[in-house]
Amino acid sequence: MDPAPLASLSLTHVHYNPSDPLSYICAWLALLPQALCIIYVTLILSSREVEILLMFAGQMGCEVLNFALKRLIKGERPKQMNGKGYGMPSSHAQFLSYWALSLALFLLLRHKPPPTPPSSKPLPYTHHPLTIAQKLFLSLLSFLLATAVAASRIYLNYHTPTQVLVGCCAGAATAVWWFGVTEWARRWGWVEWGVESWVGRMGRWRDLVVEEDLAEAGWRVWEERRGRRRRRKGVDRVANGGAEGEKKRR
For the whole model, what pTM was predicted? Predict the structure, then answer.
């Protein structure tokens, strides 16, 4: 009995030229959507932030749209590539375009932390939220990363320039549309209703990241807890020193 032929898991299988260093880099860039999905899920489970959940929901909706468009358009991949499946539009370009623009829209339009976060006790340093220049810089980095991934799909002959361009446009359009939908849901109280519902309470969902400094989140709680622990250790040392002194006097 002949063994069954082996198949390749195309989700992580990338064709590249091993003698070309740039081709090797492009192969790694092709794995960014999977890496971002892992980051999404990790942040959702660890922070329970509804904003991240909404962004990931839009990301998955963008993937569903790409699945439908490929089977509607039925555009073939470049002849140099033996990959299976349709190529119009590029799913990688669409994925990264949605992610980059969604991140930029969040940083520039929705993320508005107070100048100094409230705290029961002031900390011995001054901290300021991200400035508009820093937000623009982070947004630019995300766009550059999306551009690199899109260009890598052409370099590896997985897609034509037109397929990549259409993917970028589809991802950007989805990001703008979903940002508008979630903004409407926020203004009409649907997001707050979801967080306050029994499902939201049971899942411990919260909506703080919109008004919380990204670098400050949880840091003040940690500093106050750290201070209490150090003070408690100091009291214990004093108590232990006093007990030892009493023993010597005896």
Answer: 0.80
